[in-house]
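Case study B.
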Amino acid sequence: MPPSETPLTPERILEATEDVLRRYGPAKATVVDVARALGVSHGTVYRHFRTKAALREAVAVRWLAPEQGDLCVIAEDSGAAEERLRRWLGSLFEAKRRRAGEDPELFATFLALARENSDAVARHIAVLIGQLEVIVAAGIADGEFAADDAAATARALWHATARFHDPAHAHEWHAPETAADFDEVCALLLRGLRP
Amino acid sequence: MPPSETPLTPERILEATEDVLRRYGPAKATVVDVARALGVSHGTVYRHFRTKAALREAVAVRWLAPEQGDLCVIAEDSGAAEERLRRWLGSLFEAKRRRAGEDPELFATFLALARENSDAVARHIAVLIGQLEVIVAAGIADGEFAADDAAATARALWHATARFHDPAHAHEWHAPETAADFDEVCALLLRGLRP
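Model:
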């Protein structure tokens, strides 16, 4: 319990919380554990995050955020919509697969946390479907895609690729046939978008 | 422990096993529990199913079988392939949703059992993808569909609809928006099959 020298920022609290969650698991981790890891009182932690739930939600949001940024760059890119869509779906699958594979225990921890913070997850999914809609709308505007409704099509693309991004399928992602399955699904979906 | 009057058939043992699994859960249920429920010795049960694993696999196979039959009728039906495909996918989703909704605890029990018997599940999935292939091949033969490879397309249809048949998604099936999500995914997939 070393007294902290650097100022206690929300960022440092979130890092310590991730560490505690990882060590004790989401069922057992407490705010007292987080405070102890930082060498502060739990009252100090509560000055930054008013409840345990708020702290855990902030960790969930922080965990989900990096995916959004990389994909946003692809969505806002110039170039053919079909190529961009394939790249976006492939990048999402690759990011999920990498995170699940590198540290399956941590992935399971954050999955439990995400399930408990379904609002944070719903907002994350809405952002990602919004990015798909940007690509679909661009494809429609260029005459590359023939969909009537960009928002409905974006939702359909999201749900039709659930096997390749929903953490419930993480145990299948490293199976040898999964990459080919992904390519077959993408090919069928892209065929459905062409005029 | 009433002594059994009717002959001890495999069917009766499977029924008793389902009952025991439901009561004690898949982690705790034993062959001794099954034998006790039937009023016989566990040696008698082992004469029909040589191992506990074989008994549990037979229960998993029995649980999965009814779906196959109803869907087979649709796959082998005459009529437009597109309508048949939509009906097949809709029937599978409806059957899964009904079984998950009627008795979520039993559904979870059998899901655990299915995970433990991945060969039985793999055979079940192969049968269902085979039925999709029958429909796709009929659509190609009639000029209704334009896919190059009926087998690859059947696999793509299966994986693109995972959210609506994979038990990992059971918790989403009764959400109000899921029926609309299903329709949007089907519409996109069918568009991808048209010439």
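The longest helix of chain A spans residues 52-76. The remaining cases will be described in the next quarterly update.
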